Write the structure tokens for this entry.
Amino acid sequence: MMRRTLTAVSIAAAAFGFAMEAAAKNPVSPAFDGNYIPRVNPVSAFSKADCQPFMVAPLTIAKGNLVSSGVGGLLNGIVTTDGFVTGYLLRPDKPRVVFEGRFVDGVFSGAVIDAACAYTVTLERAP
């Protein structure tokens, strides 16, 4: 379990460093503006057995700024011209954690890791 936790932390640290470097080099972009529905699901190989999927409020990307509002988890961040996303996940009674990911061919996939669980984050365009 300790080795798996260290691996997950290493992956998260490397991804965060890469995303922050990409965000620093590329300006915020409106290219991905729109309304999205987030999906957050645990990655069993890097999570405790009791980690569950959870809801995140629908979000809007406007002028490259990603903001969700409502009940449940909230995502806030930025999107660069290259489609890199970096920001924070906020949940009730949980510490704020970093999330990052990237849009590739219009599809977003990313990750967030808290103290006990690793999650994939996907964004689906709202109808």
Observations:
- The radius of gyration is 14 Å.
- The chain is about 20% helix and 40% strand.
